[in-house]
Design brief:
single chain; 6 helices; globular
Amino acid sequence: MVGSQDRGERELAEAMRQGMRRRGEQAFGEYFDRHGRSCALGAAYDGMYLLPADPGKARPQQLDRLFECLEGTVRRCPHAGCRKKLALGVIIVHLNDDHRWTREQIVDWLVGPSVADATH
């Protein structure tokens, strides 16, 4: 049986996939850039709310209410040599902006076997 934490991360990954289909390229350092690109969490927000083509300065609101795992799950950064261990939402931003992981890599990590290393 799939645990609620695993299910939440899979639902978050699916929202990211939906948002990635809506916005071709990836943004860094902001949820949405002036070219309409989105970061990983921006893609999840867009996947849930189907934002307009020009999201302006939209910032994800209450994603943690939709995806409790963003704040309620602590994960280790999966990037080789990185020792950070933070709330999942912070790790996703860290992977996107600091390690420049693609949104696809982040989605693969979310749904991969690394869910077992999570703590509550």
